[in-house]
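Entry for the shared binder. Reason: the reviewer on the internal report wants the predicted structure included alongside the sequence.
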Amino acid sequence: MNPEALFESLRTGLTPFLGLPMANSPAPVPGVVLGAPYDGGVINRPGARFGPWAIRNATMGMGRMAMPMRLQGQDEGGRGMAAGDWVDGGNIPTRPFSMEEALGAVQQTMALLTLGALRAHAAKAGPLGLLHLDAHPDAGHGELWGTKYHHGTWLRQAIEEGLVDPRHTVQIGLRAPRFESEELVFLLDAGVRMWTPWDLQDQRLHAQLQGDIARVGQRPAYVSVDLDVLDPAHCPAVAEPVPGGLTVMEVLTLLRHIHRWGAPWVGADIMELAPALEGSQASAKAAAHIALHLF
């Protein structure tokens, strides 16, 4: 955010993401940042509908150039200004009580809402590669809750609808206790590569991890970051916190790999920040820095 944008935020009380120009009805541009104020698919600890405002506020006064990860020795080089020529398109208009409307609105305009975004991008690019950072597999059945749509089912839907190519899909950070193993069996049989935090600690698997993430980028790719991939010590204000998670630094290091893909990702999201819960300011700041490193 340049000084002029910061002064404008102070004057108007508006805090667009990273100080980007606001454009509620943008003309064709390289990219648009959109908020999705909906959390009707959450079973526990709702409040993520307020996440877009919290992340925008957390970027106030924040620079748009990520610090190089190394200032001593060899670094891969800076990536320049994040979100160059992008705009902040505001929030997707959804009413908080209609799941079908929320999914449709996300699909038309660009943890459950990822499904709508995947439908929109796959309609243009075909089956996508997917990098999914999360504590949960999100490939369960929804019948127990009376609907196949909630925040724990979207990846199964995406695979069954052919929106993502499971052979180019990688999940990282999985660790939540399970009721049964059917989810994992479904994903393994489909060809999804899954990594727990313990797997990441095994240096013998480092080359395999790099290869898995590189495979995602061999297709038009989507990146989804559920903030519960982070340990609750770093990001407590989420719907489903799970101890034993990643640090912010570990997530930022993983995101370095996406900038080695042959083409940029076609879409990305950050999910489940619930700013009414405890630790919201630190959680929002973590989300803002993760968002910066997506670019």
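Summary line for the report: The longest helix spans residues 280-294.
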